[in-house]
């Protein structure tokens, strides 16, 4: 293979096969061919005109980019495919012909805002830690919450040997009869199970979790399982790094 050219995972992401991380996983699984040669190691570079196939199907670098916002329901996995046969978020977008994938992850039992696209460059921009994209969650937790317990989250706490970034936190409702509380938490990191782990660490196990907003994209008008096009202007804002939430009048 030639040393010049683009990295294979970047070419795959630009063609809408998967995000760069997802493309790396596909390569390591031995599902990619370049000019008829099986490639299963990272670092391969391809030249203009090289034929790249994924699962035997040629990729098309000119595929039209599409962007959707999904209200992910419970009991659906945030992957493009699942070896256990469970329903995936891609299955929910039945009318979409493009090869799309989720930007980031939501747990199996977590609901809410999830971007679906075939634009690998935007996906990587949004998931990169430097992007600092706000993600707003509402959690139903066990216990009668108080701000004294939650205050450490505002400064960051240690989770699995790493300190979390400062979060915004508010108590939305307390149900004394059922001994549960509803807490809003805003973070810009994306570690696995992070919101659940943060709230558990300060004494409030999560019973239900919903992501209400990703950047400025919220769930207004979307029932669980519904999705909509992300508008041209919204895509422009995301690409420009303008993630501010502007409240509707």
From TrEMBL:
Gene3D superfamilies registered for this protein in UniProt: Alpha-L RNA-binding motif (3.30.70.1560), Pseudouridine synthase I, catalytic domain, N-terminal subdomain (3.30.70.580), RNA-binding S4 domain (3.10.290.10)
InterPro entries per the UniProt record, alphabetical: PsdUridine_s_RsuA/RluB/E/F_cat, PsdUridine_synth_cat_dom_sf, PsdUridine_synth_RsuA/RluA, PsdUridine_synth_RsuA/RluB/E/F, PsdUridine_synth_RsuA/RluB_CS, RsuA_PseudoU_synthase, S4_RNA-bd, S4_RNA-bd_sf
Family statement: Belongs to the pseudouridine synthase RsuA family.
Keywords linked to the UniProt accession: Isomerase, RNA-binding
Root EC class: isomerase
GO BP: enzyme-directed rRNA pseudouridine synthesis
EC number: 5.4.99.-
Protein name listed in UniProt: Pseudouridine synthase
Domain annotation RNA-binding S4: ranges: 6-63
Source organism (scientific name): Fructobacillus durionis
A molecular-function term among this protein's GO annotations: rRNA pseudouridine synthase activity
Lineage: Bacteria, Bacillati, Bacillota, Bacilli, Lactobacillales
Presence of the UniProt keyword Transcription in the record: no
């Amino acid at each position: 293979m030639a040393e010049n050219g683009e990295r294979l995972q970047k070419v795959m992401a630009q063609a809408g096969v998967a995000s760069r991380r997802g493309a790396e996983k596909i390569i390591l699984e031995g599902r990619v061919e370049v000019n008829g040669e099986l490639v299963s190691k990272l670092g391969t570079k391809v030249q203009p005109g090289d034929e790249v196939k994924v699962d035997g199907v040629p990729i098309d670098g000119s595929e039209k980019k599409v962007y959707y916002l999904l209200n992910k329901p419970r009991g659906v996995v945030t992957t493009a495919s699942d070896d256990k046969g469970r329903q995936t978020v891609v299955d929910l977008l039945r009318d979409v012909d493009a090869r799309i994938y989720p930007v980031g992850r939501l747990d199996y039992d977590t609901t809410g805002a999830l971007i679906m696209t075939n634009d690998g460059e935007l996906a990587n921009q949004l998931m990169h830690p430097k992007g600092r994209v706000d993600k707003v969650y509402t959690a139903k937790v066990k216990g009668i919450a108080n701000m004294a317990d939650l205050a450490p989250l505002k400064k960051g706490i240690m989770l699995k040997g790493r300190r979390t970034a400062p979060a915004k936190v508010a108590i939305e409702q307390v149900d004394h009869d059922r001994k549960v509380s509803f807490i809003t938490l805003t973070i810009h990191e994306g570690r696995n199970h992070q919101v659940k782990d943060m709230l558990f660490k300060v004494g409030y196990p999560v019973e239900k979790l919903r992501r209400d907003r990703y950047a400025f994209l919220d769930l207004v008008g979307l029932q669980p399982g519904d999705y909509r096009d992300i508008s041209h202007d919204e895509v422009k804002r995301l690409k420009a790094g303008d993630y501010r939430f502007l409240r509707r009048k």
